[in-house]
Amino acid sequence: MAIEIRQKSKIQAPVWSIIVGAFSGLFILGLVGTYFYLNEKVKELDQKIEDNQSLLVPSIEE
Predict the structure, then answer these.
(1) 24, part of any domain
(2) Entry pTM
(3) For residue 28, what are the domain limits?
């Protein structure tokens, strides 16, 4: 009895799963980028608020 060696047939992924996967990947990448962008903006605004607050509110120590 001979044993036949055959190549495995490739399984085709459904088109909808490729589209959903690509969209999800881009969405997550966008969320991560937005998180870091907004984090930097908040730090800049906090610094501006601290600078302006020292000008507007007189120090108690003086």
Answers:
(1) yes
(2) 0.62
(3) 15-52
